[in-house]
Structures are given as structure tokens and as C-alpha cells.
Design brief:
2 domains, alpha/beta, Rossmann fold, 9 strands, Helicase, Ruva Protein, domain 3, two-stranded antiparallel sheet
Length: about 300
């Protein structure tokens, strides 16, 4: 890798950090895939590219960089700024809480409010986490939620479902990385179509739920993600209706269904409000994730 006169202007991570933040602001990038602002994303990309600890920026800010290291970072900044590629696709890494997952353009960049609820093992809705034997996750993508569920419900087997064979390939890699083969089972299926016929203590899902109007206004970064994993039809509820309709026969008598619907609470209430939705508290409010019990679902 040869240097250029432009690259010689940068000698330290501090130089590159300043430059990246300025470029990101000027390009009006969208930050919705883990980082909240330009500085955080720039720091992450620089540290990751230089193979430095992601939580230790300060000790390295004024370290002298090799010319080839500068060029590597500049290439990443250019790709993020000009091509609007999400940072997670550049690094092939995404974090949910303390969990890191492999990702690429075959799956959504992991982000989920359900993930916030898993460490508490869905208390008080699950009385005994160790008694949970079977969990079904629909629309698994990278299998991030399925893996977290298997970790927090140690006696459970998790069936992780996705219609996309590409997504399942990514899921399989993450399952291997976490050494959960046999406890997390990736299955190609159109929702319940190929799901093993057994009763589940829990069904969780973060399905495609973006309504048609919102889809037309998505920032370029989201348009880099698989369309099939985002679009939920005119009101965003196309797949959610099928999930709710089929859940009752798949749940144990005390089972629960948990569905993430993002900013579509109004449409969810219009479609399922008659069932008596319970809205769970997340960092974004009380209208991102709803819960239905098996008993409620029997009333459909």
C-alpha cells in the first residue's frame, strides 16, 4: 500500500478522529446502527481498523501511525461517508449489550429493544427461567436474540427461524462462534411453515414492521440492509398478523408471545388492541414491544 501526499497530513488517531467527525457531519450521515453520534462512530471505526481495544481510545490518541495504517483508516472513512455503508458492515461486527455478532449485508444490523429485556429473563412474565424448555424466535436474522435467549435461559432449546437462506448462513456462523450448536437450531422457514410441531414456552420476534410510508423515507444507511427484513406492508403489520394468528397453537398453556414493532404502536393497537396488548418498558418508552399470553391469543 503506497502513501499519498494527502495521507501524510495524518500521523495520529487524534488527527484521523477529527477528520472523520468533520466528514461525517458534512455528509449528514445517519447513526442508527449502534452509535448515537459522529464522534462515537468515528472512534469505533478507527479503533477497530487499527485493531486496538474498543474501550481504550485515550491511551492511543497521540500514537504515531504507520503510513499504511493511515491509509486503511482513510479508506474506511471514505466508505462510510461516500457509500453510506453502515459501520457494522464495514467491520463485520455488531454489538447488542455485551454480546458481539458477525454481520454482513445478508442480515439487518442487530438492534432490538427485546434485547434489553433478556438479561432480566422477562421477569415477571416468566416465573421460573430454569423451567423454560422451548423457545421459538421468528425472523431471527443473525440469530443475535436467539443466542442471547439461549444464554439467559440455560435449560432451553431455541429454534431460530428465518425465510432467508442467506440470513440463516450468518446465523449458523454466530451459533458456532458461541458454541451453541444443538441449543440454537437455525431453520429456513416462512414463519411457522417448517417449524417443528411442538409447544413453546415463549415466542419472540423482531419482524419486518416498517410501514410503506416510512419505507419511502428511510435514510441511505437503512437502504443498505435487506429490504425483506424491514418492509412490513402498508401498515407494517403484514407479517405481525400472521405471527399473532399462528401463535396460539404453538404456545404452552402458560406461554407468551413477545413482538417488537418499533414506532408502529398505533398500527399494532389498531390490529390487535382488542386482544389487550401489554406494552413492555424499554429505553425508548412503553410502546416498542408488546406481549400477549397464550390465554389472550385463544380469544382471536
Amino acid at each position: 500500500m503506497t502513501t499519498t501526499p494527502f495521507a501524510t497530513l495524518f500521523t495520529t488517531p487524534r488527527d484521523l478522529l477529527r477528520y472523520a467527525v468533520s466528514r461525517f457531519h458534512a455528509a449528514k450521515l445517519f447513526f442508527g446502527h449502534g452509535s448515537a453520534e459522529a464522534f462515537d462512530e468515528a472512534a469505533y471505526l478507527i479503533l477497530h481498523t487499527l485493531k486496538l481495544p474498543l474501550d481504550k481510545l485515550d491511551p492511543f490518541l497521540d500514537a504515531r501511525l504507520l503510513p499504511e495504517e493511515v491509509l486503511q483508516v482513510l479508506a474506511v472513512i471514505e466508505r462510510r461517508t461516500v457509500e453510506r455503508v453502515p459501520a457494522a458492515y464495514i467491520t463485520n461486527e455488531a454489538w447488542l449489550g455485551t454480546y458481539a455478532f458477525y454481520v454482513d449485508e445478508r442480515v439487518l444490523v442487530p438492534r432490538s429493544f427485546i434485547a434489553e429485556l433478556i438479561p432480566q429473563q422477562f421477569s415477571p412474565w416468566v416465573e421460573d427461567p430454569y423451567a423454560v424448555a422451548n423457545i421459538l424466535e421468528l425472523c431471527t436474522g443473525s440469530a443475535c436474540l436467539a443466542i442471547m435467549m439461549a444464554d439467559c435461559f440455560p435449560n432451553a432449546v431455541v429454534d431460530a427461524i428465518d425465510i432467508s437462506t442467506d440470513a440463516i448462513a450468518v446465523a449458523e456462523r454466530n451459533i458456532r462462534d458461541y458454541k451453541l450448536d444443538g441449543r440454537v437450531n437455525p431453520i429456513v422457514s416462512d414463519l411457522y411453515q417448517n417449524v417443528p410441531f411442538k409447544k413453546y414456552d415463549m415466542i419472540i420476534t423482531n419482524p419486518p414492521y416498517v410501514n410503506a410510508d416510512s419505507m419511502s423515507k428511510l435514510p441511505p444507511e437503512y437502504l443498505r440492509e435487506p429490504h425483506i427484513a424491514l418492509a412490513g406492508g402498508e401498515d407494517g403489520m403484514d407479517l405481525v398478523r400472521k405471527i399473532v394468528a399462528g401463535a396460539a397453537e404453538r404456545l404452552t398453556p402458560n406461554g407468551i408471545l413477545m413482538v417488537e414493532i418499533g414506532n408502529e404502536a398505533e398500527y399494532a393497537e389498531a390490529a390487535f388492541g382488542h386482544l389487550g396488548l401489554t406494552w413492555l418498558t424499554t429505553s425508548a418508552g412503553d410502546d416498542m414491544v408488546f406481549l400477549l399470553t397464550a390465554e389472550q391469543l385463544q380469544l382471536q
